[in-house]
Amino acid sequence: MQALVLGPQGPFVREIPLVVRPGEARVRVTLAGVCATDLELVRGYMGFQGVLGHEFVGVVEDAPAGDWVGRRVVGSINASCGVCPTCAAGRGSHCPNRTVLGIQGRDGVFATHTSLPIRNLYAVPDSVDDLAAVFVEPLAAACQILEQVHVRPSDRVVVLGSGRLAQLCARVLALVADVAVVGRNAATVARLPAHIRSASAEDVRGADLVVDCTGTPEGLALASSLVRPRGTIVLKTTTHDLGQVSPTAWVIDEITVVGSRCGPFGPALRLLAGGLVDPTALIDAELPLSEGVAALSAAASPGALKILLRPGA
User: Fold this and answer.
1) pLDDT tens sequence across 10-30
2) Which is nearest to 276 in space by CA: 145, 150, 131, 176?
3) What is the percentage of the chain residues whose pLDDT exceeds 90?
4) Are the CB atoms for 240 and 45 separated by under 8 Å?
5) Which CATH architecture group holds 2-138+263-310?
6) Do the beta carbons of residue 51 and residue 110 sit within 8 Å?
7) Taking CA 124 as the corner, what is the angle to CA 119 and CA 125, rounded to the nearest 5 degrees?
8) Domain parsing of the chain, residue ranges
9) Is the pLDDT of residue 242 over 90?
10) Domain 139-259: assigned CATH number
11) Residues ≥6 apart with Cβ < 8 Å to 186
């Protein structure tokens, strides 16, 4: 199969064999999305080598359970062992033995095909087209905030950043509260929907909830300066650069700091099916897999939001 592979010298497109692990489904990838984590992996984050990509929609071609064959699916990225104490406690996304699609120990979806356990697959409703379904994984990550933090309509919510994930987090949080976005890139700030306002950092100090989606080491320090005493900071940034910030203010002001990563696919699919969130306005370009290296470069350019890869093109 054709795949976009990250090697010691960087990313390149090549032919590689498809390896379907025992008991897993073979999925033909119809559309895949480039995200900030993919770009961080290219820069050295996690030390990953292999096929990149974890946001996708595809069609099941073969599976241990025959009723999955032919179904259009998306897939959660954490493949847990299912038998360890962490999995038994219902925390499979934190399984110490897990592999992570296109990130850790498992080839990803920037390829014509991928392989995932049946338990990781979610059927896509007919009302959700591929251009929306490819956003399910990052939209689920945005939904995770509401799984972790009780957000009230009266809360003052600030999202730091206006890139890919920040746009989705702002859209989800705006369903339950007033949201302000602090972004440095005028082009991406301009692509916020009309009901979400942009603001300067000086205008939003004393926020109840601050979500760091900056993708920079400086984001946590900025979030710490904006949140009110006994407020909450949610961290969505993963970066290969480590910032320096003192936790002293968190202690003095009794700040709750929440790490937030993957999220629930069910709510994300329901938001799309119900038309409550439309992420398709974030799409900048759609490229064939053969131009995968160019797609990474395009995604890394200032002002870019979502670049898609279509393996079959």
Assistant:
1) 999 999 999 999 999 999 999
2) 176
3) 89
4) yes
5) Alpha-Beta Complex (3.90)
6) yes
7) 135
8) 2-138+263-310, 139-259
9) no
10) 3.40.50.720
11) none
